[in-house]
Each structure stands twice: as structure tokens, then as C-alpha cells.
Amino acid sequence: MQSLSERDDSKRKKRLASATGVTYPTGYIFFRGIVALISKFFIVTKLYHNDRIPQPKGYLYKPGYYSRNGYSKVGDYKAFIIAANHGQVWDIPFIGMFRRGLIWVCKPQFCIHPALAWVNQRMGAVPVFRPSVDGNTAKNSAERIKKLQMASYTPQELIPVVVKALKRGVPAIMFPEGSRVGTSTVEDAKFGAAKASFLSGCPILPIALVGCSKGDRVIRKGLLRRRLVIGVVGDLICPESYMHLESNTERYSAMMHDWVVSINELREEGSNYLN
Fold this sequence. Notes:
Elements: H1 6-15, H2 25-39, E1 43-48, E2 81-84, H3 91-95, E3 103-106, H4 114-121, E4 125-127, H5 142-150, H6 155-167, E5 172-174, H7 192-200, E6 204-210, E7 220-221, E8 226-233, H8 248-271
Parallel strand pairs: 1-8, 2-5, 2-6, 3-4, 3-5
Antiparallel strand pairs: 6-8, 7-8
Helix pairs in contact: 6-7
């Protein structure tokens, strides 16, 4: 896999200028409404324990063009990282049911076409290039790999972009498994969510999704035979609880281990709601 030239890298950054890691409120509200409407023809969503979601009273984040002189302090968990398991594509519109503007880390295929990028970036899409998947020469041609690179942030750029959004008070969605896994239990998690949590001071909010993984029962509802997708919200996983550990690696590992445990427990609870 070849690195981009300076000219191509400049074009890439210019193209990503509208995906600065902070959603445009008007764009998010408009396009989110369209996606939510379309999704309702295919899935029925139910969310349990939504009282565990932080709801700062009277707080609205300020987009970049209103706060160019710096960012306000996070404090009182005005923002958080939604970390969910990833079984199928329906996970994305389910999480998108949140009415508050947020960003979501995604694969570059969501933004590879200019028109698709224009829509998704205004819904908070933050595409990231995954070298082991998108840069795999056995699966993608050199031409396609370059297109994927041109449409996305590098892995090194991702965490600063997410942290920038969190510090403005914009929640972020991350799937710690890294890709769609769809197994009956979550077994592993990457450290990205933990890194963003420690650098921003924002907690991780685990949400277990049931009904859209390979090991889940498929429940159909109504005349349209829509698929039932259950979401179960867990307790916040706060970075300060791990500060007693000596190294960042230990902190990240412990935090994501607790996330895995929490998700599996919540999935077991959520399976009881599938009826």
C-alpha cells in the first residue's frame, strides 16, 4: 500500500473539511430525520434504561463557527462516548435514533462517493481508513485503496478528531469491535474508545444491541415484518476510575475489559426482551 502524495493528501484534507468531527445541527436534524423515517420500514426499535443516558439540562454544544477561540470545559459529562456492539448495518440507524447531534466513526465506504460523503458528513460521519481491512491488497485494488484513503482520516488522525468533538460537548459513537462481528457474545475490543475517553475526560456509555447479530433470535413485527432491535443502556464507565493503574495500556485494557463484560451482561438482559 502506497502513501498519498502531498497533493493528494491536501485534496483529502480539503474534502474532509466538512467532517471536522463536529456535526452541523441543521444538517444532522434534517438528514437524521430522513434516515430514521426510512429505517422505520425495516426495523422496530426499543431502548431500555434510557434514564442512564446523561442529559445535561439547558446545555447545547456550539459548532465550530460559533466558538473559534477555544472550547468550553467538558465538566458534568456534557458529552460521552456511546460504545455499542456491532452486528449488522441496522446498528447504525438504531444509534442514530438519538435526537441530540453527535458524530459516528465509520468505514470509508460511507463517504467514498462525493454525494454520499456530503450527506453523511453532515450527519456526523467521521470515516477512518483501516489499513488491515481497507488497505488489504488481496481484497482491494490499488486504485480502490487510494479512493478509500482519499475519503477518510488516517488512524492517527481519528482520536484527535473525536476528542475535539467531545470537548465541544458533542457525543461520539464508536464500535470498539472495529467492524461488524455479529457473534452471540463480545470477546474483544480495541482501545480507541478508551483513548478518547481519557484524553477528553468523557465517560463511555455502553449500549448493548440485541436482535441484529447472527446469534440472536429474529423477531418480526406487524404486516411489514419489521425486525425487532433491542437496545439496553448500561452504567457509565468513567476514566477517573482507572487512574490508579500505572500505565495507559493498563488503563485502556481495564476500561475496555469492563466494557466487554458490561455489554455481554446487557445483551443477556436484552435477549429477555425479545418477544
